[in-house]
Design brief:
By secondary structure, the chain is α/β, with parallel strands linked by helices. It is built from 5 helices and 5 strands; from the N terminus they run βαβαβαβαβα. Strand 1, helix 1 and strand 2 form a beta-alpha-beta unit.
Length: 157
């Protein structure tokens, strides 16, 4: 199965790519983690609602390239999920042969209509996290969830 993070924004600092790649390469064959970077629209002269709609249209097009995948919107108001619950969800989807697409919005957040159309809304924290950290945090948590499923000693909790 593939876990794809569809992330608005490109040109992350090198430490972000290094961190994501480190966890992604640790994953064994049954679960893979990928980041699909999506360029942000130019912000000059457009109002915020128009930018959010434009970003949502771009995200919808990317989601359409992965038919059948379960979709998760990352939202501050989403449901909190524990690492063991993430492992359960990934194991269930893996066993069904289904991929998972996780979307994170741009600097102004996700379009509420797009978020509402996703299968689930998750919150990583009550804190506002910077987008570079979200990439690494998700890569690590997918690896940690895989380690639970595989009986690997990485997760000790």
């Amino acid at each position: 199965m593939r876990v794809r993070l569809l992330a608005l924004g490109t040109r992350m600092p090198g430490w972000v790519d290094t961190g994501v790649q480190e966890y992604a390469k640790r994953l064994a064959g049954d679960i893979r983690f990928e980041v699909e970077e999506i360029p942000l629209p130019k912000r000059s002269g457009q109002d915020t609602p128009a930018l959010i709609r434009q970003e949502a249209d771009t995200l919808r097009k990317r989601l359409a390239k992965h038919p059948g995948a379960r979709t998760v919107a990352l939202e501050v108001t989403g449901r909190r999920i524990t690492t063991p619950k993430l492992a359960d969800e990934l194991g269930r989807l893996r066993d069904l042969g289904q991929d998972l697409s996780i979307i994170v919005g741009g600097p102004d957040g996700l379009c509420p209509t797009l978020s509402g159309s996703c299968d689930m809304q998750w919150s990583l924290s009550d804190l506002t996290l910077p987008h570079p950290m979200v990439r690494i945090l998700l890569a690590e948590q997918v690896y940690r969830a895989w380690s639970i499923l595989a009986g690997h000693p990485y997760h000790r909790g």
